[in-house]
Specification:
elongated; about 350 residues
Length: about 350
């Protein structure tokens, strides 16, 4: 790193940090204005609100991190081009590839920071943020998901039409034990409730059928107590909880939900792959930003900034569209998270080749 490299790197980082700080401040103000009535009505302590926004900042910064890397790159490089500094640098015989060196170094550093934050730091902050929102902002969940199907072991399956957490009562429960393709046992109950003290389920109006080859038995009981490998929290899949898990914990959770046959696995895989794909987008968008803004234009920096905002919007739209395509239409989560990077990598390469020429 030469003196010129340090000059570019410092200007780049200062622009990025300033823009992120402004974003965080504005986001906190907007979020507080939307939630202040709930905070007051639920008597949230001032100290708890303060720590909530300390944990909210990493969440919002991480959400828009690649886009502000791109905008900061475009804004700073456009200023260099507007003052003819880039022309002066290249006029000394400096190769364009050499000119990109400080951007590559800083971009790589931002990728590393984003990777570390995505996999470990931000999930910890989200854990505290979500806990606060559940207590002082979001409504308490009164009902479970409808038509819950769960695989609770290699051979056991349960079904529940719905569960009322207020009355602690569920309806139309069934339990099946299947060995290969043979139904060994089936239990049906009109109602079911959970005894949190004894950690067992209480079933009402039970019909229990046993199948042992040609021998079948049918038992009917008004009440039955039993232990099953699921609890009340398993009846509601809180997709926000995935944001509060570190990557090792998220991977274990995915394996658990895969065993249970959840239909929303793609949303979990999207989150898992996004934590790696998003940081690399920072590097790609950095190269794109330099190539877009390093040419001096008649309209000045405003033209470059307008192009930057447009490209950022397109990147965000493609990212959201591919994610929805995966969660709603079964598209591969891995491809859904990496396709925006692949598309913009091709665009960055074409812009780079154009600048080299």
């Amino acid at each position: 790193m030469k003196l010129l490299d340090w000059y570019i790197a410092k200007k780049y980082l200062s622009t990025f940090i300033f823009s992120i700080a402004i974003l965080a401040a504005i986001s906190c103000v907007i979020d507080y204005s939307e939630k202040v009535e709930d905070f007051v009505s639920r008597k949230a302590p001032v100290e708890a609100i303060f720590w909530y926004y300390i944990n909210f900042i990493p969440y919002i910064v991480n959400f828009l991190f690649p886009l502000f890397v791109f905008i900061a790159t475009v804004f700073f490089t456009s200023k260099l081009a507007g003052r003819s500094e880039i022309i002066a640098i290249l006029a000394t015989g400096t190769d364009y590839r050499r000119f990109l060196k400080p951007y590559i170094v800083v971009g790589s550093g931002l990728v590393f920071i984003s990777l570390l934050a995505n996999h470990f730091v931000v999930p910890y902050a989200n854990h505290n943020r979500i806990a606060f929102e559940k207590k002082y902002y979001k409504n308490v969940i009164a009902y479970s998901d409808h038509n819950v199907h769960l695989k609770i072991s290699a051979t056991e399956y349960i079904y529940l039409e719905n569960y009322d957490f207020v009355s602690n009562m569920g309806y139309r429960f069934s339990y099946e034990k299947i060995d290969g393709i043979t139904l060994k046992e089936k239990l049906m109950a009109d109602r079911i409730s959970y005894d949190s003290l004894k950690k067992e389920w209480v079933l009402y109006n039970v019909t229990h059928r046993y199948n042992d080859g040609l021998n079948e038995r049918l038992n009917m009981q008004p009440e039955l107590r039993a232990h099953y490998a699921f609890t009340l929290k398993d009846l509601v899949q809180d997709l926000d909880s995935k944001d509060a898990m570190t990557t090792p914990r998220l991977w274990s959770y995915i394996q658990q939900e895969k065993l249970r046959g959840r239909e929303t696995l793609n949303a979990l895989y999207i989150e898992l792959h996004r934590r790696t794909a998003t940081p690399f987008a920072c590097f790609i968008l950095t190269i794109m930003g330099v190539c877009i803004a390093s040419t001096k234009k008649r309209g000045g920096g405003g033209v470059h900034l307008a192009i930057g905002i447009f490209v950022s919007a397109v990147f965000f739209m493609i990212t959201q569209f591919s994610s929805i395509l995966s969660t709603k239409a079964g598209f591969s989560p891995f491809l859904a998270t990496w396709i925006p990077n692949l598309i913009f990598s091709c665009i960055a390469y074409l812009l780079y080749k154009k600048q080299i020429k």
